[in-house]
Amino acid sequence: MFRFLKGVVAGSGAGIRDLPYNVGEPYPSAWGSWTHYRGTSKDDGSMVSIFSLSGSNSQDGHLAAGRNGVKRLRTVRHPNILSFLHSTEAEIVDGSTAKHTIYIVTEPVTPLAEKIKELGLEGTQRDEYFAWGLHQISKAVSFLNNDCKLVHGNVCLASVVVTQSLDWKLHAFDVLSEFDGNSEASNSSMLQFEWLVGSQYKPMELLKSDWAAIRKSPPWALDSWGLGCLIYELFSGTKLAKTEELRNTAFIPKSLLPDYQRLLSSAPSRRMNPSKLIDNSEYFHNKLVETIQFMEILNLKDSVEKDSFFRKLPNLAEQLPRQIVLKKLLPLLASALEFGSAAAPALTALLKMGSWLSVEEFSVKVLPTIVKLFASNDRAIRVGLLQYIDQFGESLSAQIVDEQVFPHVATGFSDTSAFLRELTLKSMLVLAPKLSQRTISGSLLKYLSKLQVDEEPAIRTNTTILLGNIASYLNEGTRRRVLINAFTVRALRDNFAPARAAGIMALSATSSYYDMMEIATRILPNIVVLTIDPDGDVRTKAFQAVDQFLLLAKQHHEKLITGDTSESDGVGTPLIPGNASLLGWAMSSLTLKGKASEHAPLASANVNASQISTTSNANSVMDAQNAVPVHAGSGTNASDQPEPSSPTSTDGGWGELENGLLHEDHDGDKEGWDDVDPVEEQKPPPLASIQAAQKRPVVQPKPAASSMRPKTTLKPSKADDDDLWGAVAAPAPRTASRSLNVKPASSQDDDDLWGSIAAPPPKTTAKSLNLKTTMASDDSDPWAAIAAPPPSTKAKPLSLGRGRGAKPASAKLGAQRIDRTSSSGL
């Protein structure tokens, strides 16, 4: 029989070398003759607890009881009973003597007495935690007595241990035995190892060894008495020394006192069943117990109950013991969210609890759950993750963001909900620095290109702001192809005033990425026209940006004079204060074009004081929304180029992005910026060619008053009244004091911005201009044709900009080839 038990306990090995665990430092206390050690697994280093019991020989009574405890612990499984992992029995030779030792390996636990000292709880929080612990031990005792018909025999403070999640578990099964209630007349011992129990823990019938009375009693009679002893030791803070101390009830809470007295009834048949203690005691009805119980049976609750519970949980968690919230509630909440049993409001509670953890603990306990939640199809959870991404985004590694998070977040760019698209856009401010260049160039920029023509004006505005913020994370080639096109071709032509303001600010903030040729030929011409924008805020920012870029041009000029040939690219100037608020989001789309069905349950984003002003002029905002989009074209012929798409179109883009490079794709929908800016393809001639053209002798043409006068008095059509940029047209050459006609020309001609910066007429009048001869000889010089004809009256300097000659109703703006067959000049 002994060999059989030894084989059951020891398994295949018989020595300490067979124990796949490392034995660490012992705890100061343990039940009975056992010693409780800290331990770790040799395989993965995980924490365990190791209990050891030694005897002088294999027939030692303590060893026999220990073998009984090992067998019972291995076979009895319950959530509130200590989990068994491994056991072995070894013979250790110490000098001339040999000791037999039993080892039990369990989940990592701490003696209850040690854990209470470590937590240091007081007042209400202590009572709530004790109530939860007693609730768990009562369930374990009820399971043994009522379901298994077993008697533990020694329930006390030493027989309870605490897990890492602060759950209480029952162990010390050395005395455990079946309840033999069939042979009531028998007076033989029912508990073989009852001699291990201290006399202070024995009820009167056990102290007298009245086994007949014990067999006539309910199965829970002995262990109900033990629960009373545990309650006394818990609240008194001392170990029970003698049975008479149980009469001192000064430490027992009043709500628990009636049940405490029933547990310690002198009549075994009147003692309270542990199951009734759980169900009926008022003491167990507190916030902590009810919260944990709700979480444990979450799958049985309906959606209304879940939603109500999780909305209250963040505030409730602040009132509960902090250690219990972090070690017990937080794992339950993370598991519920991960497996889909928790509602979306639970995410708020999870992140609030996670904020109480250290950075290392947050990365281990909370972050894995959050990463998995990004794959959720629940729109409410996705919205919650994006709203709070600034709280955990910094803890995400670049690899996790690039491989696991961004592919799921990117689905929000094309979501039907404008609010979700906006949140997805704003989340890129946190995620973009962690994305690889391949992901940015091949995926992110395509999505941003589409958002820059979104139907929501605020999303278009914030897309421009985001591009300005993440410009530093783009490689040089991508910046050169994307930024200017995105800010000038799209943002500065937007019909929404804050979007134009955002484009100006983005150009100012990224000024260090442009060379002087780009500033002089592509940026300044597009910004200057906004100095007469209908919106005051746009005009103010335009003037500030012009000052900034002119300062850069002046610095470049001074370097050329001093002979400094050092690379000037990438050298910017500090932002002018008015344009320094690029990091702030413009506004929430909910405040502009709201759809009640999409936005009702969601909170709108806050608008910081440093953000772009959207209320500088209410009338101008409304006018800008209804106005024709402002376009800045190139110097190509307007008749040969289609009209640029509006900010809300879907067929314009930056060019296809692939392998980190941008290229044009003329098939199907275009998703880049390159195809909408012909300036990139047709570069202006070098400065030397322009200077040479200006030095050529210019012959003044013969006056053609009869043909020119009707052109100057031609009234634009009604459709042309919507053009905001007609004010930059030159005045009629034959009028001396006529005011500037602010009615614009045809809107379809507005694509040509270069016509407004044509060279002024030369001051010399020595020779007349032979148009046919000049055009024949200068056919290769596209700039020779842009000289405006001088007025027939005395020449005066243009006060409102460089002018263009008067044109018929269907005239084209900018540099054009003169019709050689025309006999009426321009």
Briefly say what this structure is.
Residues 661-673 have a biased composition (Basic and acidic residues). With 826 residues, the protein is α+β, with helices and mostly antiparallel strands.
How is the quaternary structure best described? Answer: single chain
Q: Which stretches of 5+ consecutive residues score pLDDT under 50? A: 1-15, 568-582, 589-653, 655-671, 675-686, 698-759, 761-788, 791-826
Number of helices: 30
| Overall strand count | 12
**Overall helicity:** 40-55%
Tell me the distance between the termini.
121 Å
Radius of gyration: 42 Å
* Major β-sheet profile: 5 strands, antiparallel
- Strand percentage lies at 5-15%
Write the layout of secondary structure elements.
Blueprint: H1 2-10, E1 21-26, E2 35-41, E3 47-55, H2 61-75, E4 84-94, E5 97-106, E6 109-111, H3 112-119, H4 123-147, E7 150-151, E8 160-163, E9 168-170, E10 177-178, H5 204-207, H6 211-216, H7 221-236, H8 257-263, H9 274-280, H10 287-296, H11 303-319, H12 322-338, H13 346-354, H14 359-365, H15 367-373, H16 379-387, H17 389-392, H18 398-409, H19 418-431, H20 437-451, H21 457-470, H22 476-490, H23 497-509, H24 516-528, H25 536-562, H26 596-599, H27 618-626, E11 656-658, E12 661-663, H28 687-695, H29 705-712, H30 771-777
Helix pairs in contact: 4-7, 4-9, 10-12, 11-13, 12-13, 12-15, 16-19, 19-21, 21-23, 22-23, 23-25, 24-25
